Amino acid sequence: MHPPARSPISPKLTGLFLLGQSVNAVLSSIGNVSPRLARFDTPFIFKSGKAIPAFELMYETYGTLNADKSNAVLVCHALNASHHVAGTYNDDPESLGWWDNMVGPGKPLDTNRFFVVGVNNLGGCFGSSGPRHINPATHKPYGADFPVVTVEDWVNAQAQLADHLGIARFAAVMGGSLGAMQALQWAIAYPARVGHALVVASTPKLSAQNIAFNEVARQAIITDPDFHGGHFYEHNVVPARGLRVARMIGHITYLSDDVMAERFGRVLRDGMQFGYGPEFQIESYLRHQGEKFSGYFDANTYLLITKALDYFDPAADYDNSLALAFERAKNVKFLVVSFTTDWRFSPARSREIVTALTANRADVSYAEIDAPHGHDEFLLEDPRYFALVRAYYARIAAEVGA
Amino acid sequence: MHPPARSPISPKLTGLFLLGQSVNAVLSSIGNVSPRLARFDTPFIFKSGKAIPAFELMYETYGTLNADKSNAVLVCHALNASHHVAGTYNDDPESLGWWDNMVGPGKPLDTNRFFVVGVNNLGGCFGSSGPRHINPATHKPYGADFPVVTVEDWVNAQAQLADHLGIARFAAVMGGSLGAMQALQWAIAYPARVGHALVVASTPKLSAQNIAFNEVARQAIITDPDFHGGHFYEHNVVPARGLRVARMIGHITYLSDDVMAERFGRVLRDGMQFGYGPEFQIESYLRHQGEKFSGYFDANTYLLITKALDYFDPAADYDNSLALAFERAKNVKFLVVSFTTDWRFSPARSREIVTALTANRADVSYAEIDAPHGHDEFLLEDPRYFALVRAYYARIAAEVGA
Questions:
Q1: I want to staple B72 with a disulfide (CB 3.0 to 4.6 A). Which of A193, A263, B116, B167 is the partner?
Q2: At what angle do helices B240-254 and A208-222 cross, to 10 degrees?
């Protein structure tokens, strides 16, 4: 079966570059998919010590789990994505999964060979237990009372989902950015349950500058009068102003300076207006991104996720030695990928991971890909990047007989 | 006369590094100074075509104008500074001028030799005509109706102040960052009235990324409910939330990633709190900076100044050729200085200026200084930077007999 014709660039990129035009109707090669909800009627205890009495995880799967259950791959999402990794809902091309260019029949992560699992993380806003859900103690939405989550918590919850699905061991756990942190954490916390960790555009911990950007975004949300201390649901408002600013800040850090210059430059839409309407194209782009985001993303989830990013620091429990932290993971195999123009999590940060892994004589492949788009590159169909991931999965397929 | 003993670092830097401690009592070597107000009873016509019927400029001077009026130096301020370049008010060390380490008796810009002028720019909030002033048409504060200002407007107003002071020609015009753009504009607009332009940590125009950061800051202010469309004075409020976020964003871009890492790292004040209070030291620092700024700076002025930054593009009127723009300035002499870790206006941007100047065979000296503090370095007492500026002013002094 041939995949239907599609644009060579992902819809995300299309949205980026064809600002103001409608997104091309891109058909997914995997077709329509449906999310499912897994319920766990046992308390979940967070790293903070807080607990919730029960929880739910929204997930999707693509492909078929083979007889010996050796071909499962977990795809972990980053800040604003979800369990909806690939495919469409009801043939709506606008609903295409966030990594559909990577995951599907014949794609680098080939669903003809692998059984792929996507899951909305705990604390998320796309169906898994989170701030919008009812707090059984108050019979109102948790709001800001939902426990602060960590990458460790997410991975522990994902492990329960794996149990639920009968998956004792993943052939691979993969993610980009914050998703890659989850792949690293899987290798540390559950080394016997992970064959390979694919770690793209990541860092072993945030820098002070990374934390600073997150903190400004949080302050924009928290100080929005419509935030109401995180209990805005009861007021039938959302802190849209704060979310818009938070998203705009984020977007600046996702793109390289060069690609921003190339795509937007200093082009004025209608000459100098001497006012505060959108004049430069970059202003329109950022406002559009902020507006869109504030319409669908939950402010409390945004706070939780940025905090999980800030806290992630696996070396902290190992005398600040990343090599010691990875000692438990020495039998996991790694593919680490970075992009030259990523200034959010630069190649130097990925090299820290590689150095710590090789100190444990782990099986690690590392690629530093010369690519223009900055941090966002991990979502884009860069030919060298995709060829590399494709080849790496071919190796995994050979190992597990997929 | 020996200058009194003082800390080797500026109070700004002290504030930066000794967060939470009171600023050291740093005595100025120039002593107490007083601002003065110049009134111009002629209309000022802005680049936008708008006009105000009269205007005032707040300024300070240090040192003595010599008999042939050849030793005057204009110091232009950047985003949040003012006419108060050096000295104190009423012996209060907290009131030390923003470039007191650079300007004073025996300092690199030596007030024993030069007559130094500092001026609050038009549209500012430290005494010169601006949004807080009464609009004669409405008898209310201008607020958002104050005309949008450009670097060209500022320089034209400064030229009127020079006339007022009887200064036909400045021995030098000097500034860092946005202040340096004014020095460049002086050289282009009034080449016969400028001997030397000292252009520190500057750029010939903002990049899309620079504009993006400004736009997020503006959106934070404009969408603050207390902004009231720029007419918040009438409501007896200030858009403090927006100003805080704007300032936090700015501060991230002023510091290098490395110095932020070195000074703040990932240090938690009191361990993991699993909440949204300030936990990492960088968070406390940014909140403190935002809070302080929102207490003294005018939101409309912030909008005006960021817009002036965005619009500055002297090449735009010359077929997008910076070399053509500088043709008029070929008899002005230039010192251009950049700092290696400045990612806001990187050395590459200063090199664009130098290349365009040398294309006109202008007399230009360029120094790219290996220094750790990022964009903020232009305010700090870096020994190589200060020695260079000192030597350059010695040359100017010899030329003008100061």
A1: B167
A2: 170
> Which residues in chain B have Cβ-Cβ distances shorter than 8 Å to A268?
none
Chain B positions in Cβ-Cβ contact with residue A216 (cut-off 8 Å): 245, 248-249, 252, 286
Size of interface A-B (CB pairs under 8 A): 146
The answer to whether the Cα torsion of B367, B373, B378, B380 is positive or negative is negative
For residue A273, CA distances in Å to A82, A279, B49, B52, B147 come to 40, 7, 11, 18, 11
- Using the predicted structure, report yes or no on whether residue B10 has a pLDDT greater than 90: no
How far from chain centre, in Å, is Cα B15? Answer: 18
Calpha distance B391→B402 (Å, rounded): 14
Contact B273, B290 (CB under 8 A): no
Q: What pLDDT score does A28 carry?
A: 56
Q: According to the model, what pLDDT value does residue A7 have?
A: 30
Q: Is A177 a catalytic residue?
A: yes
**Which residue is catalytic, options A177, A202, A294, A338?**
A177
Measure CB to CB from residue B208 to each of A148, A205, A261 and give the nearest one: A261
For A343, the closest chain B residue by CA position comes to B257
Above pLDDT 90, what percent of chain A? 90
Give CA A31 to chain center in angstroms.
Answer: 22
What's the average model confidence in pLDDT over B49-58?
97
Mean pLDDT of the residues in chain B: 92
Q: What is the pLDDT of residues B186-218, one digit of tens each?
A: 999 999 999 999 999 999 999 999 999 999 999
SS3 at position A339: strand
H or E element in which residue B301 lies? helix B299-311
CA-CA distances (angstroms) from residue A246 to A289, A297, A302? 10, 11, 9
Q: Which residues of B are catalytic?
A: 177, 342, 375
pLDDT in tens, B146-201: 999 999 999 999 999 999 999 999 999 999 999 999 999 999 999 999 999 999 99
Q: State the complex-level ipTM.
A: 0.90
Contacts of A274 in chain B (CB under 8 A): 46-48, 50, 147-148
Q: Which of A266, A267, A286, A341 to mutate to test the interface with B (most CBs of B within 10 A)?
A: A266
Q: B229-246: string of b/e by CB count within 10 Å (b at 16+)?
A: ebbbbeeeebbbbbbbbb
Residue of A nearest to B291 (CA): A219
Smallest Cβ distance to B205: which of A212, A266, A283? A266
B326 min Cα distance to partner chain A (Å): 20
In chain A, whose CA is at the least distance from the CA of B49? A274
- Give A287's Cβ-side CA count (13 Å radius): 18
